[in-house]
């Protein structure tokens, strides 16, 4: 392929800087920076479709759980016990091992007031991190890194390896790598050498595009050189979509790519029918991919700098439906794992006898989780937009 056949559109597609990745008009940030962290890395895992939290983290001794789910409820003898009242789905055995190591935190009942049950709208709310009333399309990670010069010394502020830009949408040095070979081929055929970025003051939409193009070229070239100079290791990742995305994440980190946020996605959690089989398969894939990534990070000596965090647009209904499944719900647990994570249960279990509109009332606002990520990983102090009332959450030891 020559440069004459390399269109600007293909370049933007290959590096993941489509319209969603272009800088937006400047918007007020919602965090004050007190530091840039000490090399902590966040791996965001989107469980797309709405993960069923009640069958992921199970209130095994709650009689209301059995009444609400006579068919699809997980039997206590099959579940993986965490404490006297709480257990994990049996497909999460690798995560139970991480729990035993004290490196898994489970934040229960995570949601937001006035929940929205639309896939598209609810994930927009989770991505922006500003509550159900906000119409912002800018991601909470982009907002968190909006302070001048924060992470500007790194190869990128964040990279998406699966799904849309989501929490990384908006201004900043964010991009995506969907396919390593296509990424390297594209960058190898760019003309000339990377050159200085245009001044940060942007005066027109065209200048936005030019600044993004040049930022992406500089960032992409640094990543290309590191990947080309690094020999891939023979890791034992599962041959699933999520496994391949996390393999790419490990490959980037092993090559020395400096990036504080990587985002991956696992699809398929919209379990309206035949949930027991489908959900078990999904959680098996999830736990095996996370376990393989944890082993790779331990081998590389990076495990203590890693925090993996799951999230989903909503949980599922408390009551099973007539098709051995569940429908769009509200609150669900968030899982956080890593070598420096303060393991244990956090938040409060939703009361299954006090449903709201026949569904779970959230007990932890998702903005509390985001605030904990920013504070603990990067010493970014959230302002009032994320200072939601509720007990503070501590992620790291």
Any key phrases for this structure?
397 residues; alpha/beta; nine-stranded mixed beta sheet; three-stranded antiparallel beta sheet; 10 helices; 14 strands; globular; disordered N terminus
Descriptive notes:
- Helices cover 31% and strands 14% of the residues.
- The protein has 397 residues and is an alpha/beta fold.
- Strands 2, 6, 7, 8, 9, 10, 11, 12 and 13 form a 9-stranded mixed β-sheet that branches. Strands 3-5-4 form a 3-stranded antiparallel β-sheet, with no helix packed on it. A two-stranded antiparallel ribbon has the order 1-14.
- The chain is globular.
- The protein starts with 7 loop residues before the first helix and ends in a 15-residue tail after the last strand.
Question: Quick summary of this structure?
Answer:
Helices cover 31% and strands 14% of the residues.
Question: What is the residue-mean pLDDT, rounded to a whole number?
Answer: 84
Gyration radius from CA atoms, angstroms: 21 Å
Helix content bin: 25-40%
What is the distance, rounded to the nearest whole angstrom, between the alpha carbons of the first and last residues? 50 Å
Class by SSE composition = alpha/beta
- Beta content: 5-15%
Q: What is the ordering of alpha helices and beta strands? A: HEEEHEEHEHHEEHHHEHEEEEHE
Low-confidence runs of at least 5 consecutive residues: 1-30, 190-206
Report on the biggest sheet.
9 strands, mixed
Output the number of helix runs. 10
Q: Based on DSSP secondary structure assignment, what is the total number of beta strands?
A: 14
Note the overall shape. globular
């Amino acid at each position: 392929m020559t440069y004459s056949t390399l269109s600007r559109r293909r370049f933007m597609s290959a590096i993941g800087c489509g319209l969603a990745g272009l800088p937006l008009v400047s918007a007020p940030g919602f965090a004050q920076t007190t530091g840039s962290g000490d090399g902590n890395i966040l791996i965001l895992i989107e469980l797309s479709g709405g993960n069923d939290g009640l069958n992921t983290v199970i209130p095994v001794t709650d009689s209301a759980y059995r009444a609400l789910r006579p068919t699809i409820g997980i039997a206590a003898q099959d579940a993986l016990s965490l404490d006297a009242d709480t257990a994990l789905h049996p497909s999460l055995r690798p995560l139970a091992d991480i729990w035993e190591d004290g490196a898994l935190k489970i934040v229960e009942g995570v949601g937001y007031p006035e929940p929205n049950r639309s896939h598209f709208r609810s994930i927009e709310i989770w991505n922006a991190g500003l509550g159900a009333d906000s119409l912002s399309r800018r991601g909470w990670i982009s907002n968190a890194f909006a302070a001048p010069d924060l992470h500007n010394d790194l190869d990128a502020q964040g990279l998406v390896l699966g799904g849309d830009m989501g929490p990384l949408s908006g201004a900043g040095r964010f991009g995506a790598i969907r396919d390593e070979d296509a990424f390297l081929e594209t960058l190898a055929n760019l003309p000339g050498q990377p050159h200085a970025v245009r001044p940060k003051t942007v005066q027109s939409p065209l200048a936005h595009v030019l600044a993004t193009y040049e930022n992406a070229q500089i960032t992409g070239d640094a990543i290309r050189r590191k990947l080309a100079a690094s020999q891939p290791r023979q890791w034992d990742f599962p041959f699933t979509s999520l496994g391949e995305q996390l393999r790419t994440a490990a490959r980037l980190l092993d090559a020395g790519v400096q990036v504080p946020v990587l985002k991956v996605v696992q699809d398929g959690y919209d379990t309206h029918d035949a949930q027991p089989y489908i959900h078990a398969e999904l959680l098996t894939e999830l736990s095996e991919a996370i376990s393989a990534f944890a082993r790779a990070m331990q081998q590389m000596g990076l495990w203590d700098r890693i925090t993996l965090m799951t999230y989903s647009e909503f949980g599922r209904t408390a009551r099973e439906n007539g098709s051995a499944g569940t429908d769009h719900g509200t609150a669900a647990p968030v899982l956080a794992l890593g070598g420096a994570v303060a393991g244990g249960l956090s938040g409060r279990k939703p009361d299954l006898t006090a449903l709201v509109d026949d569904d779970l009332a959230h007990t932890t606002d998702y903005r509390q989780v985001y605030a904990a990520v920013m504070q603990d990983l990067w010493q970014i102090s959230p302002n009032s937009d994320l200072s939601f009332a509720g007990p503070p959450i501590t992620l790291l030891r």
